[in-house]
Predict the structure of PRP1 splicing factor N-terminal domain-containing protein.
Amino acid sequence: SDVCAGLGRGATGFTTRSDIGFGGKDDVAGEKEEDLGDSNYNEFYGYGGALFSDTPYEQDDQEADAVWDAVDQRMDGRRKERREAREKEELRKYRAKLPTLHSQFADIKRDLQSLSREDWVSIPDANDISHKKRRVDTMKDRFMPAPDSLLAQAQAEQAGSHNELDTRQQVLGGITTVSGDADSSPFYFIGSSTQSQFTDLNKVGEGRNTYLQLKLDRVSDSVSGQTVVDPKGYLTDLNSQIRNQAADVADIKQARLLLKSAITSNPKHAPAWIAASRLEVIAGKVSQARNLIMQGCEAVPLNEDIWLEAASIHPPEQAKKIIAQAVHHLPTKVSRSTNLLTLIAYSSGLIRRVLRRALELIPDSERLWKAAVELEDKETRVLLTRAVEDGCCPLSVDLWLALARLEEYQEARKVLNNARKKVPSEPQIWFTAAKLEEANGNGQNVPKILERAMRQFADMKLKVSDDRDFWQQEAEKAEKGGYPVVAEGLIKVSADVNVLPHERRRVWEAEAEALLERGAVHCARTLYSSLLQYFNTKKKIWMAAANLEKKHGTPEALDQLLKKALPATTFCPKAWPLWLMGAKEKWSLMALPGLTGCAGARVILGEAFKINPDNEEIWLAAVKLENDNNEIQRARTLLEKARMQAGTERVWMKSVMLERDQGNMEAACELLTQALEKYPTFAKLWMILIQIKQSMGLPDEARDAYLQGTSKCPSSVALWIVAVHFERDSNQLTKARSLLEKARLKNPKHLWLETIRMEAALPDNRKLAATRLAQALQECPNSGILWSEAILMEPRQQRKAKSVDAIKHCENDTFVICTIARLFHADRKLEKARTWFNRACTLNPDFGDAWAHWFRLEQQHGTDETRAEVIRRCKDANPRHGEVWQRVSKAAGKNFADVGEKLMAVVQSITEKASLTN
């Protein structure tokens, strides 16, 4: 083993695992492996078992365990008595609810002690009845298969029987057996009793079909040649008849027996007679049903339903007589029997006679009087007078009101007064009287009538006096019916019903808005009038009332309302929106008496200046008025005064823009210098300065302007974007990108879109733009403008899927919805595009780009009406934001333009951009 081959050549020996044996750890005697299975693992405690179970158990371990056991016993014994008492009480309560069997039969077991030996012996043994019935049932109807030997024996016994078919049987398929009198009858069938060792099923089917065809041919034509049976539908009819008979015959027989028993036991029970008659009708025995129902009429002559049933199953002539008998027995019943009698009388032309006879018998029937009045043309007034004034139906409100409608004004008043005396608790009488006064030009009497009605209802403690909804509903009905004075009176008389003084404003404002939504404009106007009586210094209420008159009223009504609110001696002289509304209405409507048009608007704004000298909105409205009327010098003078009195940032900005629009760049720059000294942090001034310097061909000064502006306004995103666009338009892409990165450091979440667009504008950076877009969406997942850009950056085939993702993240975002509408427009899905554009403009009316894209759609595919509607809604919304909208509307010459002009300019810009893209 010590010899090593090649030792002389310098070889050395080596050792393998087979030389030294297995390298694992030797098992130690008595040592157990740790159980690391899932069954030994607990989520809270970890693996089970003792941590030091493999160490020897020594004396100190035993002493420690004894100490801990003593501690456990001590802790367990501290509250042992209390714990045992509680457990005992819980067990007692539990046993009281659910006692054991032992406790339930304890008293019976005690009674068993008194039994004698004879009593124990006399107790019978228990019978074995546990499975007796089951065993009996299993023995019934047991069938075993017959052995083959029995079948063979039966064949042998019948070997000499008739096994061959004659010619007639062969024709019929072998389903008949020839009998003794077969010669006398060519088709004499005893049954399918032909015995054969082998049965030909095809022959059986052919024979059945042949027999059925012969039978149909025989019954289809009678002697006269008329068809009495439909051969094609014979099987279907036969099948339905068999099914009905099989299902109903047994039930009809059982029902007939039950109903016969019911009638016999209680012949005065009308429902039993009716049910028996209907059963016979179902069974097809109409004559027997009629006889039964007439017997029932004789047995129960005072029941209305049985007479109606009898009339319904008889012919009209007999039904007429039956109803006459019913009226004789039941002269005061006028519900359904009167209707049936009326129908019969209509068919025979006797309706008037029938109703008059009925009224003689039942003069207090309101239903009969109404039916009679409906038939009369000339004597209607006479009938109604007899009905209500002769004591027949003095409590019928409908008849009183019908009579009042037929009378002249004075007589109608008398009729309504009489009706009010007879039925003082009926509100409709009072309301009709109020409508009568308004219809005849006496509207001043309407409030008196309604106030008196409310007082009377309150004195009588009627529920209607406390029901606000009832009075408002009646007011709405009156307004829709053409009675505005009555509607106004109803609203006023119920305004304070169940309303505390401190809740008036909240309740009345909510009700006015609800009435306006339901189309009750005059009712809402009345509530606002009541509000202004109590809260005449609240600008919000005046604005709501003025908006109501502007949308639903007349120019005169709006002018009267503003005259109450605006002057210095009245309620809201400081409410500058009302002043602007009044000036705008005077200027645009030009249909009011006195000073109209521009002159009237100047007068209103002049009064507004006196009361609100420091309000910039009024000053700027006056400047816009003069600028729109091409009064540039007037506008310049107003701006000079405004700079001295108001002097706000917007006033200075409008001054600069006026000079820029007029081409006075030097004057505009001078004003900008003064304005920036006062307001250096107003970013819009810096943006205007950059644009002016750029338009003047002074790039260095424009660059200095944006450097100063971004240092003064580092958080203005719009200013950074203007600076980036300046460098990009100057072909300084490196500077533009560097400037954009610098802006993103100061505004990290607001310049992603500009970064993406800058990268996408370069032909080789589409992938980088997509990467930037993914980063932006990860950082701003709910940004609608980013999702909109993501949709537009996708290829046309993938835009729909991206739109779905955008809707999931930004369901109600205007940018996303407008972009989806543009996709529908591009795919010529015009109705869907209109729906989505409408949704976008409804969600955010201030977003001008959506209005422009919508109008572009209507300009290409719409009508004059749709285009006019979009323009009208856009003017009402007066949008001020939007990427394209702001860029176009803030351009030179468009600052003081009308909303319609701005809309056209934005549409033109979008169209030009689309043509360049295509």
User: Anything to note?
Assistant: Strands lie at 41-42, 46-47.
